[in-house]
Write a structure and sequence with these properties.
With 456 residues, the protein is of the alpha/beta class. Helix content is 31%, strand content 27%. It has three domains: 172 residues, 3-Layer(bba) Sandwich (FAD/NAD(P)-binding domain), CATH 3.50.50; 116 residues, FAD/NAD(P)-binding domain; 113 residues, Enolase-like, domain 1, CATH 3.30.390. The protein contains twelve helices and 24 strands. The radius of gyration is 23 Å and the shape is globular. The structure holds flavin-adenine dinucleotide (FAD) and nicotinamide-adenine-dinucleotide. Nicotinamide-adenine-dinucleotide binds next to helix 6, strand 10 and strand 19. InterPro entries: Class-I_Pyr_Nuc-Dis_Oxidored, FAD/NAD-bd_sf, FAD/NAD-binding_dom, FAD/NAD-linked_Rdtase_dimer_sf, Pyr_nuc-diS_OxRdtase, Pyr_nucl-diS_OxRdtase_dimer, Pyr_OxRdtase_I_AS.
Length: 456
């Protein structure tokens, strides 16, 4: 049996980050991955989707300038060439990541990690060969995959999951997207920019259901203006392939047909076959690996990233990985604190948020107020040709607890917003924070200083 200080199952952002820190500190680390180094994020998540969106972004900007009669003509994106570029980039990045890990002293295992005890893991290779490993600590970082429900299960023919859709050989003439969370909205943006007739169906009363209603309503209005069909407040009952076409049945029995359909209704953890119970771990009610306040799933086992279901974001997986590595190294003893989590939905229209929504703050109680600024007042937003949208700041009992924005390019505001929030740069401290001029970031300062109104 090969012995290590730490065995990590899952080579996505969470597992890779943890492995690098521990190896740099002199620990012997085994990292087990059964698919691609870099996980979902690098191979079929964050990175390929942003490369697609990046390629169509200039089209959106030029459309804004065309509306102002300062640009004309068309720009074409070569879909086949773009797909090849994305594949080349992600493959090379995955290889570079693996090489970097190996160079840092991490021992890489290609195969499926299966828990065999509180300190033991079996690695099952694709050819069925097995290797037994033991360690003082195990870190579960196996991530998640697309969820499906009865009636809403990708058949990988005309009804696809997000990985299938990233690999479709040609842009579908029409596309139904079930689910208006981040995946649904980003895919809708790309394929619609590429010429697909896109229909988005969302069961919740609004698109981007976790965001505040004012953000979601403005988003739906602006997407409508851009020719997108978005049906919110209606559930998809079933999706199937009929005569090569995707056929969606809505809960009111209406039928919609398209060349392809995407099921983007959330994620489920990769716990099948992990045998986590053998390491002393339990699954919670939603099927994720249950962890305590220290991200411990058992006395010598941690679970980080998507597999613990806390926050399904790549940077959250990495942040948790840093915390767990520091705990193992004896550099951290307090409970895990994510701080205000930044998140973005990318595309020609973006949503950005750090910290709480007004809805969240209201549900917790206290005096909740909102201050805002419209992007129309920002010179850089105007220069880019699309100044729709706004920034809002959420205040709870006088403290800044959240900053959100909707509009073109607002994902670029996320880190400045986080710094403002962490430093509590409100009226009495903001004078010490110098914003470059002219920048989109200046809108944050305007929103922080705008009059506060009670949140509805
Ligand atoms: C289309 C899409 C777009 C996304 N865009 C963004 C974005 O823009 N920003 C963002 O923050 N997040 C985004 N996400 C979410 C992000 O990809 C995940 O939150 C992140 O990848 C989670 O990291 P992780 O390390 O927990 O797991 P993963 O990235 O899922 O990696 C886990 C790895 O473990 C492997 N594995 C699982 N079980 C085993 C086992 N038993 N043995 C060996 N290996 C195993 C898997 O093959 C996988 O490679 C997106 C997701 C999708 C699907
Ligand atoms: N930019 C980013 O950071 C980014 C991008 C993509 C994905 N992600 C992460 O990946 C995770 C998964 O994304 P996702 O968009 O699949 O999940 P999600 O949970 O964000 O959204 C799924 C949506 O599907 C809807 N839905 C469920 N059943 C339905 C039905 N029968 N009919 C109509 N609508 C239905 C839900 O109400 C929900 O709004 C997210 O939690 C997100 O954190 C992040």
């Amino acid at each position: 049996m090969d012995k290590f200080d730490v065995i990590i199952i899952g080579g996505g952002p969470g597992g890779a980050k943890t492995a690098k820190i521990l190896a740099a500190a002199g620990k012997s680390v085994a990292l087990v991955e059964d698919a691609h180094w870099g996980g979902v994020c690098l191979n079929c998540g964050c990175i390929p989707t942003k490369m697609l969106l990046g390629a169509v972004a200039p089209k959106g900007l030029l459309r804004g300038l065309e509306r102002q009669r300062v640009a004309k003509g068309t720009v074409e994106v070569d879909y086949a060439a773009l797909q090849k570029r994305v594949q080349r980039y992600t493959k090379a990045s995955s290889q570079t990541l693996a090489k970097g890990l190996a160079d840092a002293g991490v021992t890489l295992f290609n195969g499926r990690g299966v828990c065999a005890g509180e300190h033991e893991v079996r690695v099952v290779a694709a050819d069925g060969g097995e290797q037994a490993l033991s360690a003082q600590y195990i870190v579960l970082a196996g991530g998640s995959r697309s969820a499906s429900f009865p009636g809403l299960t990708p058949d990988h023919d005309a009804v696809l999951d997000s990985t299938d859709l990233l690999n479709v050989p040609a842009v579908p003439e029409s596309l139904i997207i079930v689910g208006a969370g981040a995946i649904g909205l980003e895919m809708a943006d790309f394929f619609s920019a590429m010429g697909s007739a896109v229909t988005v169906v969302e069961a919740a009363p609004q698109l981007a259901p976790i965001e505040d209603t004012d953000i979601a309503q403005e988003l739906q209005k602006l997407l409508g203006k851009a020719g997108r069909t978005c049906l919110a407040g209606i559930k998809a009952s079933s999706l199937l392939t009929r005569d090569g076409q995707a056929v969606l049945t809505l809960e009111d029995d209406r039928e919609l047909t398209a060349a392809k359909a995407l099921v983007a209704v959330g994620r489920k953890p990769n716990t099948d076959g992990l045998e986590a119970e053998k390491a002393g771990c339990a699954l919670n009610r939603r099927g994720y690996v249950a962890v305590d306040d220290y991200l411990k799933a058992a006395p010598t086992v941690f679970a980080i990233g998507d597999i613990n279901g806390k926050t399904l974001l790549a940077h959250a997986a990495e942040h948790q990985g840093v915390y767990v590595a520091r705990q193992i190294l004896g550099e951290e003893s307090g409970a895990y604190d994510s701080g205000p989590v930044p998140s973005c939905i990318y595309g020609s229209l973006e949503v950005m948020r750090v910290g709480k929504t007004a809805r969240q703050a209201l549900s917790e109680g206290g005096e909740v107020a909102v201050s805002r600024a419209m992007l129309t007042g920002n010179a850089i937003a105007q220069a880019g040709g699309d100044a729709s949208g706004f920034v809002k700041v959420v205040w709870q009992d006088g403290r800044m607890v959240g900053i959100a924005a909707l509009g073109h390019g607002v994902s670029h505001l996320v880190t400045a917003a986080q710094l403002l929030l962490l430093g509590q740069y409100s009226s009495d401290r903001l004078h010490s924070f110098m914003f470059a001029h002219p920048t989109l970031d200046e809108i944050l300062s305007v929103a922080v200083q705008a009059p506060r109104e009670p949140a509805a």
